[in-house]
Amino acid sequence: MGSEEHEKRLDLLYSARLLDGTGVLVYVLLEHKGWVDRGIARQLFRYILRILEGRDRNRRAPCVVIPLVL
Q1: Is the model's pTM score more than 0.90?
Q2: I need a surface site. Which of 27, 37, 54, 58 has the fewest CB within 10 A?
Q3: How do beta strands 64-69 and 23-31 pair?
Q4: How many CA atoms lie within 13 A of 33 on its CB side?
Q5: SS3 category, 56
Q6: DSSP 3-state assignment of 50?
Q7: Which residues does the chain have with pLDDT short of 70?
Q8: For the chain, how are helix, strand and coil distributed in percent, rounded to 5?
Q9: In the chain, where the domains are located
Q10: Residue 65's CB: how many other CB atoms inside 10 A?
């Protein structure tokens, strides 16, 4: 089995309200690394782009993406 088969999705999508009452979607992108990965910024950028393109393609509201590396 490849490592991708063991992968589990831990990403979360939250909805919140700003002080002025405007609704906003916040997508928390969680990435676990057990080692120093010098390419993590590029990897996260690709993930964020896929998230936003997918939401656009499916005509869903845009969201704020917060990447966290553990």
Answers
A1: no
A2: 58
A3: parallel
A4: 13
A5: helix
A6: helix
A7: 1-10
A8: 30, 30, 40
A9: 3-69
A10: 19
